[in-house]
Design goal:
Blueprint: E1 4-9, H1 14-30, E2 34-40, H2 50-60, E3 64-68, H3 82-92, H4 94-107, E4 109-116, H5 123-128, E5 133-137, H6 141-156, E6 167-168, E7 176-177, H7 191-205, E8 208-211, H8 219-226, E9 239-241, H9 258-263, E10 271-275, H10 284-297, E11 300-305, H11 309-312, H12 321-324, H13 329-332, E12 337-341, H14 346-350, E13 355-360, H15 364-373, E14 377-379, H16 386-396, E15 400-402, H17 413-425, H18 427-446, H19 452-465
Parallel strand pairs: 1-2, 1-4, 2-3, 4-5, 5-8, 8-9, 10-11, 10-13, 11-12, 13-14, 14-15
Antiparallel strand pairs: 6-7
Helix pairs in contact: 6-7, 6-8, 10-17, 15-18, 17-18
Length: 467
């Protein structure tokens, strides 16, 4: 009997890679007869700790094969802008991907090719080979409503998004101010904007779209997508909500890890956790405001601090917390808080009994981890689509509190103090805590046998397992 393969083509950044690998694990767990091959692009930019992560997955799940594409010299005029690279590299690699898919299909039958939206250039390759091609949208249903509606938005105005200064009426989600859209989409003449429009258009023509969310978390958005209201000028492909798909993470020893040892000594639900993702870096001035706000809030806290950009540009990876935080802050708060440098085991921390709140950058992976763990959030978006996620999390899903910030994103100590206290002690905090606990229960039920996400996953994979 001929073997069958599913090929996954993630964007190489750690946030996108992890969710795609989790999808690969899910496919392997439920359909061990399907081979899973993940294509890995070499990159000229920082992708987070992907090498170490890939090695760990290879050791623990040998059934997943990582196929590293060979390095290609970049043309001298190739843009070094991150989004241009994220879309442009896959385009450069189309002939390599074509040959790779042909080579795989000589040994096994390719049942599906699953693309990250940044890997959009490969859509023309896989479809030219008549391979069923799906997109894995690493964010949720609300974000997908906006993404698929882009082509309509593009046709209904001749202005760039940066010049609109208006609330956007996108089906399935609350009104979103144009300034909350990702900045890389602000100028309709830019390459990044054109790439997003092209990807939105291709997704509408694909064999199906897979989203990392679950029906019960985003009911209105899911219903709107399934009713075809986000793609106005043609049919909507099947959309599968198979989340929450989050990394189980490397097993961290609670007796060894500094954060988990400290949390063990804290009262139940008393600690607010502050962590801002793999790219969440603040200037010294902002770090000082956070510190002052935390101290004044009188709440217990666990805070992950990264090297400020001015420091890291000198190439110095190591830094001293005392040099970038207010004088004697660590000494004054040692009974109330713990500050750690650069990294902490986020899933394990969010799942800890002592943690009662999460100040987050609104990255979708982190938001799902908080939902699964039942930890309410303060929404502090930094980049990409995070300002849009804030609207969904605060106004639609109601599992986070809004944080006051200036137009340039700066947050003063007073806003930190007020919102952290509100989250941990106030009525609004109590309301989002109750809501997220309810969602946590729904999240777990969604992926169990008979749950909506499990049923959607089986619907997605059924054609791949038919001989």
């Amino acid at each position: 009997m001929e073997s069958s393969t599913v090929v996954l083509y993630p964007s190489p950044g750690i946030g996108h890679l992890v969710s795609m690998v989790e999808l690969g694990k899910l496919i392997h767990t439920h359909h061990p007869s399907l081979s899973v091959i993940i294509l890995i692009l070499p990159t000229p930019y920082e992708t987070g700790a992907t090498g170490k992560y890939i090695n760990t997955v290879s050791a623990t799940t040998p059934a997943i094969t990582f196929h590293h594409l060979p390095a290609i010299a970049l043309p001298p005029d190739f843009s070094s802008e991150f989004i241009d690279l994220a879309f442009g590299l896959p385009e450069l690699y189309n002939s390599v991907v074509h040959n790779t898919l042909v080579s795989i299909s000589q040994k096994s039958r390719i049942k599906a090719v699953i693309l990250d939206f940044f890997s959009n250039a490969a859509f023309q390759v896989s479809t030219s080979l008549s391979l069923p091609t799906y997109y894995f949208y690493t964010s949720g249903a609300s974000g997908l409503c906006a993404f698929l509606y882009l082509t309509t938005l593009h046709k209904t105005t001749s202005k760039s998004i940066k010049d609109l200064n208006a609330l956007l009426d996108i089906p399935g989600v609350p009104p979103i101010h144009s300034s909350y859209m990702p900045t890389v989409m602000f100028d309709r003449e830019s390459n990044s904007y054109k790439n997003f429009i092209k990807t939105s258009s291709n997704m509408a023509k694909s064999s199906g779209i897979i989203a990392n969310s679950f029906l019960e978390l985003e009911e209105r958005a899911v219903a709107t997508l399934r009713d075809g209201k986000c793609i106005i000028d043609g049919p909507t492909p099947p959309i599968y909500f198979i989340g929450p798909l989050i990394a189980s993470g490397s097993q961290v020893d609670p007796n060894e890890n500094e954060c988990l040892k400290w949390l063990k000594t804290q009262p139940s639900k008393s600690v607010v956790f502050l962590c801002f993702g793999s790219m969440g870096v603040f200037e010294k001035e902002q770090l000082k405001e956070i510190a002052v706000g935390l101290e004044r809030s009188r709440q217990r806290f666990l805070w992950v601090v990264r090297n400020p950009p001015t420091e890291s540009s000198s190439g110095a990876k190591e830094f001293e917390l005392d040099d970038i935080l207010p004088e004697r802050f660590l000494a004054r708060t040692k009974d109330k808080g713990l500050v750690v440098k650069n990294w902490a085991p986020q899933p394990a921390i969010l799942g800890h009994e002592s943690v009662g709140g999460f100040v987050s950058h609104c990255g979708w992976n982190s938001s799902l981890e908080a939902v699964v763990s039942g930890v309410p959030m303060v929404a502090w978006p930094l980049y990409a689509e995070q300002k849009m996620n804030r609207v969904y999390l605060v106004e639609e899903i109601k599992v986070a509190l809004w944080l006051r910030m200036s137009a340039d994103g700066f947050v003063g100590a007073e806003a930190v103090e007020e919102t952290v206290r509100k989250l941990m002690e106030g009525e609004e905090g109590r309301a989002v805590r109750e809501r997220i606990l309810e969602m946590s229960g729904r999240a777990k039920a969604a992926v169990e046998g008979g749950g909506n996400s499990r049923l959607d996953f089986l619907k997605l994979t059924r054609p791949w397992t038919d001989q």
